[in-house]
UniProtKB/TrEMBL annotation:
The lineage of its organism: Bacteria, Bacillati, Cyanobacteriota, Cyanophyceae, Leptolyngbyales. SUPFAM superfamilies: MoaD/ThiS. This is Thiamine biosynthesis protein ThiS. It holds the Pfam family ThiS. It comes from the Bacteria. CDD domains: Ubl_ThiS.
Length: 70
């Protein structure tokens, strides 16, 4: 069994370590968790569940950056 998995991040393939939690993946992607929203396998994932969400092979993430304006 491999210790690397492949998932889709915004439609692009991405490889990471298995058993990685979502906040660690977001950190590796260089994203500020306070400024993004995450769709996990087709469902908006509430921030309170991020720390318990383990990334699995073939997961699909859509990550949207929140931009303020005036």
């Amino acid at each position: 069994m491999s210790d690397r998995i492949t998932l889709q991040v915004n439609g692009e393939p991405h490889t990471c370590d298995s058993k990685m939690l979502l906040p660690k993946l977001l950190e590796q992607l260089g994203l500020n968790p306070r400024l993004i929203a995450v769709e996990y396998n087709g469902e908006i994932l509430h921030r309170q569940f991020w720390t318990e969400t383990e990334i699995k092979n073939d997961d699909r993430l859509e990550i949207v950056t929140i931009v303020g304006g005036g």
